[in-house]
Structure formats: structure tokens, C-alpha cells
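Before a colleague's protein record goes any further, I have to sign it off. Thanks in advance; the entry in question is below:
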Amino acid sequence: MHKLIVLVIALSAVAFATTRTPIATIPTASGNNRFAAQNDIIVVGDGGPSSGLMVYQVGTWKQIATLNFPSSNIGVAGIAIQDDYVAVGVFNFSDSQGETFIFQKPSGGWATEGVSAILTASDGTQLGGTPAVWGNTLISPNRGVAYVFVEPMGGWVDATETAQLTASDNPPYFGGGAAITGPVGSGGNLVVVGSGTNAYVFVEPQGGWASMTQTAELAGNGFAAGLTAAKSTIAFVTFWQQTERGDLDQIYIYTEPEGGWANASTPNFTAVAASNDGMTQPTLSQDAEVLVAGLGSSDYKAPHLSLDRTYLWHANKNFGPTPIKLSTGLGSVYGATVAGPYAYAWDEDSVFVFDGK
């Protein structure tokens, strides 16, 4: 009975949150369910065999370019955007090769082009996961290792990693997800890598990235795969909760202690979802003031589901129990993110744009 009462309270809290509807909807080709956004562009790709990515202009919401793959048999695992380049974790269905493709922004602005550089691992590991980028640094997380690539002064070229990040206790599923932000404190960029239970924090040494084990370890209570980081804040999803709340997913939110990152077992805040359907990758805005995540384990449209499944929390409300609903009217979504003044949610053939503040 106690569990039921807690669950009803959680559902009621979310039910009375403010609801926002899309300010724009971008139709994309069916199956294009991989997505990334920055202030000026959004990029959409297909997880199945395809020949490239579509680039849309923020504000006009019109397609302005196509980023072409070397073949039409390549699937997209994930996309990341950083100012003058797009990074794409890909899997080649022809030869089972996983790599990271880089598309460099032309001097005249984004235009249709081919791959600028291909990043691979020196140990032969397949780099087909979702990359994380910040400035001139790219992280490719994989089982057991997170690979660090640093862009050369002249721009990206075909290369192997600069350094490897590993966990000292070799946890299961290390490399299931990664995020990067920075710089922090007296160090350089901050990287967070997920594992079977916890999130591992790496701070770039003053001399630049070198192979290393974690600076600190943050405890979760489940499967820490979806991660995000901004300024001095780290947030990650924990799946498969077994608590008094039932099986509700949570986002654990840690902020950097005054003396720098250290092992921690208690988050500063938690953002709780009134659903046990699985929470998508969370995203913090660059100022760490807004947190967005979708709720939905389904990989297809589910109009029979009545729950709105995308939510936005505010830091000034301590990421509390009444997030703003971003209503697509479709129920299940693939994911959600926030970039600049906009929040986004997407399904298999549309991107929905919301006020993200």
C-alpha cells in the first residue's frame, strides 16, 4: 500500500505541471531517429542503413545541407555537434566496422559535403558508439574504455586516439555512455563515463589528456548509461530502481564540491519521472539551468499511450517534482535535448521544437 501511495503522489505531481506544445514541427524521412542540436543547426540521421545526414537551420527549420557517407549501408549510433564540426558514431553494415566520422564546417557555412576525417581506435576496437564533444576534444565511449581524440591545430584528419580513459575497478558496462564539458576548476575539460552502476569522473590534467583512471566515482542505483554534464553539474539516468517509489527511473544530479570532484554516494538533487517505461538520455543546457529528458522505452509511435513523455526541469526549482511537460501528442518519443533557447523531442519521422527556457 505504501508503494502505491507514493506512486500516486508522483503521478499527481507531474499531472499538474505546466504543458508546452511545439512551436514548430520538422517532418523527416521515416526512420531518421538519431538527432543532435546546437545553437544554429540540428542534424538528423537514421539508425538503419542510410547514405547520410540531414542538416536543418535553427529558426527557419529548413534543410540546408546533406552530409554524405562513403556508402549507403551505414547506420548512425549517435551524433554530436561542436561549432565547426559534426561527429557521428557509425556502423557499416557491409563490413561490421564501427568508426567515428567527422564532418568539418566549410568556411562559407554548412553545405552538402562528404566525410572530412575518420577516427579509429589504435587497439582495433569498433568505435560505433555515440560521441561526446566539447571544443577540440571528442570522446568515443566503448565497452571497457573511453577513447579521447584531440583535434589537431589544422583541423580534423584521420587519426587514432590521444588517450584512453578507464575505471580502476573495471566495472561492467563501463563506456555505456559519456559526456564532456569544461574546463572546470584549475583543471581542463571534465569527462563523465557511465558504467553498470556508477558514473566515473575524469578531469583533464594541466598538461593535456593522457591515459588515466578516474578522478572520482559517483554512485547511482541502477544502470548509469545516459549522462550529461555542464559547468559544475553532472546528471545521469539510473534504470531499474528498486526503491519505495517502485520501479521509477531517476536522474541523479551532482554538483562539484568546493574542493573539486571527489567520490560521492548521495546526489545533490534527483529528478524523478512518474513512469517506469525507461528514461531517455538526459541533456543539461550549457549553463546547467535546464534539464530535459524523454520518457519512453518504445521504438515506435504509440498513439494509444495517454502519457506525455518528455519533461523539462529547472535548476532554480532544484529539479523538483513538477517538471514542464513537452507535449508532442504522440506519447512515446525516442529522445529529447536542449540547445540554446529551444528544447527538442523526436520520434521516428518528426522533430518537435519547444520553448526551452
